[in-house]
Amino acid sequence: MPSSIAVVTSRGAKRLAGGHPWVFRSDLAEAPNVPAGAVRMADPRGQPLGWAWWSPQSEIALRRVDRDSEAAIDRSWWRARLAHAIARRAPLATLTNACRLVHGEGDGLPALVVDKYDRWLVVQLLSAALEAQRAVIVDVLNELVAPDGILARNDASVRAREGLSKQVELLSGTVPEEIEVNEHGVTYLAAPWTGQKTGAFLDQRENRVLLGAHARGRALDVFSYHGSFALHLARGAESVTAVDASAGALERARVNADRNGITTLACVEADAFEFLRESVVRGDRYDVIALDPPALAKNRGSIAGALRGYKELNLRAMRLLAPGGLLFTASCSYHVTKAMFLDVVRDAAADSGRPMILRALTGQPLDHPEVLTVPETGYLKGLLIENGG
Question: Catalytic annotation on 267?
Answer without folding.
Answer: no
